[in-house]
Design a protein that fits this description.
This protein is an alpha+beta fold. The chain is 38% helix and 28% strand. InterPro entries: Nucleoid_associated_NdpA.
Length: 354
């Protein structure tokens, strides 16, 4: 979990990178940019807003042989080891050249590259430094107005839309041994491989948050693909209810305990194990049977899981995720022979006020 509210831009270097396949050059600024009080808050919002709005999925630098062969890992380490205005600008030039070398596909757009050194960044309740790398590609039309004699003249110009960052990444000085924790965004999906694979060379950071999210997504698909056809919608919802509550009340996930506590039907327990064998690679849980649980990931997952039974008679039944025993005790499903329809029977003492 990150917090950028108190983050401070210590240094900023701005360069331009062209498309190598179109014989466009790169431009390196000789000196760092001198930020002022007027533009600094605008740039912070421009750089950081996409990361506040995006679900956190962390990455880490990677290499098939060894991390020391990952150029971006080395540049980040070089700057983190000796942070200064001069070193930050020197490393920013290396990063821009490296980005230019990867810009060799006709679809890749030229644009401005901003390299920042950030302080007072919070991640996982730790205050650390970070490196921010951002790229603006898409230019927006805007109008300027100028008085000419007795008339107001209109001038069409192009510039950067501060409401939309095209590409960006935050490299946190945290978990260096694993390849640093990294967040990245890419608003233009047509060249994602160029940014993620070729420029950054990253893999998913498989921490407890990643594992918690992946396993809960696996459970959600099992509920939809297996529990619903075998039982009914109520049991699908209740299975996810029990699954989320297991994660919410435990610090460690242990698969055998999870199956015993969450899956009441022995036949479904066997199906669960078979489903994992078939689908494990898709969810990156092939060899996973225990891991620490990330509470914030459970909270995020709970918000996305539907606990509503939609009926074809335009009636909805909402089941409580906090008190699942209520649905087991007070909601029954049956079949009415006369009407030839299913029904839900709900017991209660009195209606609650909204």
């Amino acid at each position: 979990m990150i917090n950028l509210f108190n983050a401070h831009i210590e240094t900023l270097s701005i360069h331009r990178v062209g498309n190598k396949s179109r014989n466009e050059a790169f431009f390196l600024s000789e000196d760092p940019y001198k930020l002022n009080d007027e533009i600094a808050p605008l740039l912070k919002e421009y750089f950081f807003k996409p990361f506040r709005e995006k679900e956190e999925s962390f990455y880490q630098f990677a290499h098939d042989v060894d991390l020391e062969f990952n150029e971006m890992f080395n540049y980040a380490s070089e700057l983190f080891n000796a942070p200064s205005r001069e070193k930050s600008h020197e490393v920013s030039q290396k990063i821009t050249k490296h980005l230019f070398e990867q810009s060799n596909h006709p679809h890749i757009k030229n644009g401005e590259v901003y390299v920042t050194y950030l302080t007072n960044v919070s991640i996982d309740n730790n205050t650390v430094d970070a490196i921010g790398i951002f790229k603006s590609e898409i230019k927006a039309d805007f109008l300027q107005f100028e008085e000419k004699g007795s008339n107001l003249d209109m001038i069409l110009q192009q510039g950067i839309n501060l409401n939309k960052l095209d590409k960006g990444c935050l490299i946190f000085n945290y978990k260096k041994e694993e390849g640093y924790k990294i967040l990245t965004i890419d608003s233009n999906k047509y060249d994602t491989r160029y940014w993620l694979e070729h420029f950054l060379s990253v893999d998913i950071f498989q921490d407890e948050a990643f594992m918690t999210k992946k396993y809960l997504k696996f459970c959600q698909d099992f509920a939809k693909d297996v529990v619903l056809p075998a039982e009914d919608k109520k049991e699908e919802v209740m299975f996810m209810n029990r699954s989320v509550n297991y994660f919410a009340k435990n610090d460690e996930f242990e698969e055998s305990n999870f199956i015993n506590e969450v899956i009441e039907n022995p036949d479904l327990a066997a199906e669960f194990k078979n489903y994992k064998v078939d689908k494990a690679e898709k969810y990156s849980i092939e060899d996973v049977s225990n891991f620490p649980i990330a509470n914030n990931a459970v909270t995020d997952a709970r918000k996305k899981i539907k606990n509503i039974i939609n009926l074809d008679t335009n009636i909805q039944i909402k089941l409580d995720f906090i008190n699942p025993e209520s649905a087991d005790k007070f909601v029954e499903k049956g079949w009415d022979e006369e009407k030839q329809m299913y029904y839900y029977l709900v017991y209660f003492n009195k209606e609650q006020k909204a």
